[in-house]
Design goal:
- The chain is of the alpha/beta class and about 110 residues long.
- The chain has a five-stranded mixed β-barrel with strand order 2-3-4-6-5.
- β5 and β6 form a beta hairpin.
- It is globular.
- The two termini are about 20 Å apart.
Length: about 110
């Protein structure tokens, strides 16, 4: 999946784009039911349910850091499109600072959301 997509944490997911728009959610995978629902701890610590997970493309490992591409559904849920493993050294704290201080700062809106 190529393109520019809004990057969200748990807090910004609460005011996310409309259903059907593609978003990026980075966090730690903390649970997977083995069927079609995963729980991701977003970069700011909030828990998000990822639904309609494709088990052929979601290689769950406890505490793996990943990027979920999907669509917001409301009620802290994201519809799954794909997952990218970001490795063990990805710094969620710094990523969250990027979202809070840069991505959501009106000063930089024309750079990220033009």
């Amino acid at each position: 999946m190529d393109g520019a997509f809004e990057r969200l944490n748990y807090a910004t997911l609460q005011t996310a784009p409309a259903e059907g728009q593609v978003i990026s959610l980075v966090g730690k995978a903390i649970n997977f039911d083995g069927v079609d629902t995963a729980t991701i701890e977003a970069a700011d610590g909030g828990q998000v349910q990822v639904v309609q997970v494709d088990v052929t493309t979601f290689n769950y490992a406890p505490n793996m850091i990943c990027e979920i591409m999907g669509s917001p559904l409301g009620n802290n849920q994201v519809q799954y499109f794909l997952c990218r493993d970001l490795g063990e050294d990805f710094d969620l704290e710094n990523y969250n600072k990027l979202i809070q201080n840069v991505m959501k700062n009106p000063k930089y809106a024309d750079i990220f959301y033009s």
